[in-house]
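Hi F.,

I've been meaning to write this up properly since the lab meeting, where we talked about keeping a consistent format for the predictions we share between groups. The idea is simple: the sequence comes first, exactly as it goes in, then the structure tokens exactly as they come out, then a line or two of notes. No screenshots and no reformatting. I'm using this chain as the first example so we have something concrete to point to.
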Amino acid sequence: MTPLDSFDEAEPGFSGHFSANFRAAVTTALQEQGYTVLAWEEDGVNVIGPQADEQYLGLNNLYRRALGLDQAEWPLLIRQFLEHVTHISGGPDLPAALDTVTAQLRPRLVTPFSSDLKPRLWSRPLPGTPLIISLVIDFPHAMAYATQEMVENSQATPDELLESALDNLRQDTPDDFLQPVTEELDLLLGHTGDGYDASRALLVEELLPEPAPAGLWVTVPSRDELYVWPVSAAALEHLPHLKLFAQDNYQKHAYPISDDIFWIYQGRWHTFDIRFEKPDTVAISPPPEFIELLENWSASGELP
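Output, unedited:
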């Protein structure tokens, strides 16, 4: 990721809550220059640039200047700002194929890209979830998404490229990556802050310090956090609290991914539906496979 917020520092006390008209004007200007909006934050916006590089644009100062002008002048102001950002950002040179950068490949767990995105980014669905797996090229001070063209130009197959990315992530992951959140609960947190913590959910079963016979619940509210809870009767009681926690982090943290709870069992992902229909009513709809497993465990009297 290329940090560009240093060129747009806010005045002390500036709230950074942008109006709908300002967001619309910025979105239009971004699209005109080949950018795609990934997610808005309180003080700026995450985008994919024309060369598939991910950037964060701090907008507080721009918004403050825009408020002093007539809205008819906003398009020119925003274009000038984006031209300046483009000039100073100087993203990395990207390869035509991925064979020469396999050591830099990493997997990324994200929400589906817009179908209008140009260039078209490579991805594949993560079965059982609304998420997708993408490939990124990791640079010392930036990252860029692998495009469909880069994958097609490669001698290696998509499966081989993805396996290289997963293996690189394994090597980057500390042995003590998953740590207890509290002494009272079995809930674990994975957080290194390297931009790939949520993506480590793709490796989570092998990262567990101990086996989880009934699988585990996972949530990835944002790019830089992974919460893991081995399935147990005690954990099941507290699962709605984890859902509330995931919803809160999804709303507040940068690079949001999902507020869903997922159940991972024997390598397969399942969405574990939890809904708050009223303030005091929780509706839990486990996947059929979980119900079957629970019945088998209950019948044997061996529920964890």
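Notes:
The two ends are 41 Å apart (CA to CA).
Residues 99-172 form one domain.

If this format works for you, I'll send the rest the same way.

G.
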